[in-house]
Amino acid sequence: MPAWRWLRFVQGPSLRRITPWLLVLLALVAVRLSKGALIADLYAVVSRPFWPGTAQAEWLRSARRVEDGARLAQLEQDNQRLRTLLELQKQNPNRVTAPVISRDASGWWRQLLLGQGALSGLRAGQAVLGPGGLVGLVGSVTPSTASVTLLTDPRSRVGVWVGRTQHHGLLTGIGTGRPVLRFLEKDPQARPGDVVVTSPASTLVPPNLPVGVIQTMDANADPAPEAVVQLIAPVSALDWVQVQVR
Amino acid sequence: MDLLTRQPLLAATALLVPLLVLVSPGWLSLDGVGPCWAVLWLLPWALSDGPFSGACAGLALGLLLDALHPGGVTQVPALLLLGWWWGRMGRRAPPIQRSFSLGLLALLGTALLGLTLMLQWGLLDWMGTREAIQLAGPQVGRRLADQGVNPALLALPGWRWDDLAGSGLRVLLTQTLITALLAPMLCSLQLLLWRQVGSGWRR
Predict the structure, then answer these.
(1) What are B84-102's pLDDT values in tens digits?
(2) Strand-strand pairing, A240-245 and A127-130
(3) Residue B157 near chain A (CB below 8 Å)
(4) If one looks up domain A93-246 in CATH, what number appears?
(5) Do B161 and B150 touch, CB atoms closer than 8 A?
(6) Containing H/E element for A234?
(7) Phi and psi for A151 in degrees, rounded to 5?
(8) Residue of A nearest to B146 (CA)
């Protein structure tokens, strides 16, 4: 029985000796086939104390912030230079910071009263900026106060465009908390989430100030599509604003 | 008329109305809309002081409030009418002191004031649209409309009709409601004060 000889050779005490090695081999094959599942996981568990902590993420984030800020400043400077080259803006914009001393953000009139007036150089028609973008336009001034017509007031009309598609529209207050953007084109290709900025073609407001985000689109409105815009600046909580003095 | 002729300084309390309009305390508002302070002051004044004094106070208040609000609309006629009406009521009717009727009068007054404002804006809207179309000429107007621009949009002074019917109605109702809720408390106290001051002179 030559065929059974090796089997008999393996049997007995020698099988007991080989079995652990066979198991190790099986485990290695399993690791190989699973592309190192166990090893990588083991490594992850063992090296957990040495992982990059929150501090490191914070450094990276702050570096990114610095980079973004620097790029923004650079781009703004560049934009300014190009605009002066084009003579779109004769002088450098100058901003006056003013406190909000009266706030009537709902009701028949939607307006703010600022604690700076004609003595500080404010004039009717100047743009008022809050944290988050355009808030409204100065409606009238007295020597020490200025009343601001908010973008939500039905009397407010501001030329804006959707930055992504570059389609113009008229931002009109309708007496609710959210103004309506009435497009000039039949097919504005805008969709909810698009950012609305002031139009570079407008002479009333400084160009490219962020205004709001499109919340809903009504593409079938007559005579042109309409969009409801959520303003970025929290109008009901404003306490300091900046007025762009030309 | 006693209050206005004998001690005109008392009428200076009307200056509180524009100040309160400016302060517009957020905790005293319904859905962000504050009460109509002019009605809350004018109602007890007119009830205790007669139609002429009430109309004068209404005129003064209207002028003060119009100065605070931009736009071509005015609150003078409504306040004038209300002052005169409430003044006549105070003289002819038995003394009105019960809170319910004060609330009802304030409700009617605020609704009337809001309606006159809505009427003015509606008229301005209608005239503005007509004027814009006339100015642009029918052909240009139609071309603008074809391009999707409402010609009236570029020439409007205030609320449009459909906004008035939507959010305008909401503002009207909320203001009417909050004023009517506050009137029994605030107006009865003022009425008491004016009557006490007045009766002091009569004795």
Answers:
(1) 999 988 766 666 667 778 8
(2) antiparallel
(3) yes
(4) 2.40.10.340
(5) no
(6) none
(7) -65, -20
(8) A223
